[in-house]
User: Fold Chitinase class I from Shinella granuli.
Amino acid sequence: MAIDRKAFFDAVRGTLYGGRLAGTQVAGLAALLDRFERGEVEDRRFLAYMLATAHHETGGRLQPVRETFAATDAEAIARLDRAFAAGRLPQVSAPYWRRDGEGKSWLGRGLVQITHRRNYARLAGLTGIDLVGRPELAMEMAVSVEILCTGMLSGAFTGRRLADHFSGALTDWVGARRIINGLDRAEKVAGYGRAFFTALGG
Assistant:
C-alpha cells in the first residue's frame, strides 16, 4: 500500500519534530515505510504504532541505539554497571549486559531494544538473522527494522501483538504499549501513534 511520502513528511515534521527533520531521521522513517509497503499488512494503525515505538525508544533519533544511548558497547556496559551498583535499576536481578564467556553482551540494541540472550535467540528464530552469533547486527538499520516489525506483529516481545490492539473497530493506542513494555509511558507513545496515523492519512 503506497504512502504519500511528501504529505507524511510534511505532517510529521511539524507535529513531532519541531519543524525540522535531520537526514538520519528521514532515513529511519523511510526504512519503516519501505518495510510496511512490502504489503504484509495493510492496517496503517499498525505502521503508526510501529513508528511511534521507534520514535520513543530511540529518543526521536529514528536510528538504532544502544541501551543508555552510549556510543559503544563498552560505554553502555559501564553506564549500566554504575546504575546497577547505585541501586538505580531495582527491576534488574542480574546484570544481563555484562559480557559472557564468548565476550558477547546482551544489552539493549535497536529501534526497539531487545535485551537478554534468550530474546536475541527468539528474534533470531523469527527473522532468520544470526543475532545470537552476532548480536551487534541489531544496530544495523535493516536488521533493526525487521526486529521491530516482526516482533510487534508476532508478539515476540511480551506476547501481545499489534492485532490485539488494532483490529476492525478496536483502536487501543494506550493499551498497545503492552506490546513492548507494560504501560510504561503509554499515554505519551499513544500520542505519537495518533500523530503518525494522522500523517499517514488516517
The two ends are 13 Å apart (CA to CA). Residues 5-64+142-200 form one domain.
